[in-house]
Amino acid sequence: MIRGRAWIFGDDVDTDVIIPGKYLRTKDIGLLAEHVMEGLDPTFASRVSPGDVIVAGRNFGCGSSREQAPVALKAAGVSCVVARSFARIFFRNAINVGLPLLEADVPCQAGDVVEVDLEAGRVSCSGQEYSGTRLPPFLMEILQDGGLVAHRCKERSISDHGESAGVKRP
User: Fold this and answer.
1) 38-70: b or e for each residue (b if 16 or more CB lie within 10 Å)?
2) What residues contact 161, with CB distance under 8 A and at least 6 apart?
3) The pTM is what?
4) By C-alpha distance, which of 110, 116, 111, 112 is closest to 129?
5) Residue 86 β-bridge partners
6) Can you give the pLDDT at residue 149?
7) d(CA 86, CA 92)
8) Which CATH number applies to 2-134?
9) Which residues are CB-contacts of 119 (< 8 A; sequence separation ≥ 6)?
10) Would you tell me how many other CB atoms lie within 10 Å of the CB of residue 122?
11) What is the number of other CB atoms lying within 10 angstroms of the CB of residue 147?
12) ∠85-100-7 over CA atoms, to 5°?
């Protein structure tokens, strides 16, 4: 269960406002976190707390395919993004870096406490519960492992150890 304070953003939040292009040359995720959401709310990075949840409208993460957008959100402490819909490349990049997300239409206010049950595909806010699109088990597994790289390392380790012990994985 993910629980955090809601940050509200509207429709068509593009990757250029999630992390402006002038910060894309750095590999310092701390610097990315310091400037996350700068294009929409210059104070966001200084006010977001670990565990907070972004609740947004349609097409969150549209624009360029920059992987730094979900990396910056995760590094800033955002625990989950709930949106009516996501741009496809942002959705995949978020899963790849281990940033949980859920497609759901959740009408809540900034600062409300939001609880997200990824496995059930449910979100609660202000005493109301909303259903969203459940992630398939293979995507949940990637998120639980911390992202795609960690997931593949885990799979490889299991495969290597299992085969050496006479156990084969499919």
Assistant:
1) bbeeeebbeebeeebbbbbebbbbbbbebbbbb
2) none
3) 0.88
4) 116
5) 60
6) 74
7) 9
8) 3.20.19.10
9) 134, 140
10) 17
11) 20
12) 70
Residue 164: the pLDDT is 41
Q: Which two tokens stand for residue 147?
A: 């992202």
Block mean pLDDT (10 aa), the chain, length 170: 97 96 91 95 97 98 92 98 97 96 97 96 96 94 87 75 48
What's 147's DSSP letter? S
Give the DSSP letter string of 27-94. --HHHHHHTTTTTT-TTHHHH--TT-EEEE-SSBTBSS--THHHHHHHHTT--EEEES-B-HHHHHHH
The tokens of 55 are what?
């609740």
Count CA atoms within 13 Å of residue 143 on its CB side.
22
| pLDDT of 18 | 97
Instruction: Please list the residues that pair with 116 across neighbouring strands.
Output: 2, 123
Chain centroid offset of residue 39 CA: 18
pLDDT for the residue 166 = 44
